[in-house]
Design a protein that fits this description.
about 450 residues, mainly alpha, 4-stranded mixed beta sheet, 3-stranded mixed beta sheet, 15 helices
Amino acid sequence: MKLMAVPKPILRLFAIPAVCLLLFLGLETWYQHEADRLAGSSDVPNVCSTYPVSQPVQDRCDSRARAAFAASASAAVLVLLIAVYLAINVLTARVWLGRLPFLTGCRWGYRIALWASAVAWIVFAAVLYPMTFLLTFMRFGGWYWIGMDNFLIGTFSLSAIAGLVGLLKRDPGFPIPEDVYFTGAGAAEKEQPQLFAAVRRLAESVRCGTPRNIVLGLDPAVLCTARRARVEGILLTGGTLYLSLPYLRLLSESELSSLATIALVPMQMVTEESEKWLLTTVKRWTHHRQRFQQAAFPVAGIPFTLLWYWLDLWGNWQVNLGAFAIRRAAVLTGRENVAAALSKAGSLSRRWPPFLKEMQASIRRSEAEAAQMNLSSMFASRMTELAGEFSKEAALNPWIAGLGVEAEEVKRRVADLQPSHGADWVAGADALEMNLSMAQIKRMVFLREPAGPAAGL
């Protein structure tokens, strides 16, 4: 596993028990020295082990014992935090390398981070913070009242436990929508055997289950989800793949296969159960994290830094899966195809909303022409005119970094944008495009702006 720089919040977390360890070790030595000095004897190696002793000596001996206990607690929690930080990184790396199931690694990383954060919360709040105050300010101020020490430590401990219990209670205020809403038309295998055969071949190459459903739409995107989906009120289960009809015109078959492979790879790792669990968990703890950051004393959230670190690693899990899927697709379909497909898809997706707004204004001026419009064909023709502009954007696409493809090769392939059916996967594509165009026009003119290919994803 490649070593990475330790993030600053993690270093800040480690610094608290490390500084406390040094402080308490110094205090232990100091109180031992004070006890020996007050006892007035240098013959006894440890005056605190001899009885009876005077009250001032006993106070120093008690303070020494408490400092030794606090130092032990600091050392123990420091070792625990370092071990858990390394364990989270190892688990995460094994998941992204495909050596550990996605949900297994995610859950174990979460449980370890949560357990360590809970222990750190108790130790920090019940031992380190109050002991630092008691053994420095209180003692140097002349207060050696053991009863007050016990009262304050007990109060801090009960408050820490009560706060932890309240924090771990389930938060019902953040439901995750169960269904993903697509805009388009569901394809039937009897009507589109070639399409399903092509997707089946890609799924077999990725070694993942074939999505039971395929949705064809006008929005320039290729998406795949294991969650339940809805298209025009119809419930789809068993995995759904969304394919863009304009992509069928503007991308070659190898480029479209690359995008479909990138969409299918996460299906190999992420089940519907794991996706729901991760989304719910990340959203709930993100809310708690914001509450800590907005609190009057943000330092209270430091013990949960490992959990926040887990959130940072897994809160962006779709991006990490995307990077993993790109590398896998580059092996299966070719780096040049993946680079060209990602560059074209990025440019096309940015031009789609302005194109729809332009069409919306045009349709409202002349609604008689709406019935003859094929938005997919018009969009493809318009984008072909911008091929030269797309080629200049090719080198700026962050997704293709690291593929090892020459920028000039990507620009050449992007510039060669032709409005023809590159991937002949869909039967009756023209008629389907006309029907979807009419539905899109009705939404634009009479109802509202379209939400996108997957509004609930």
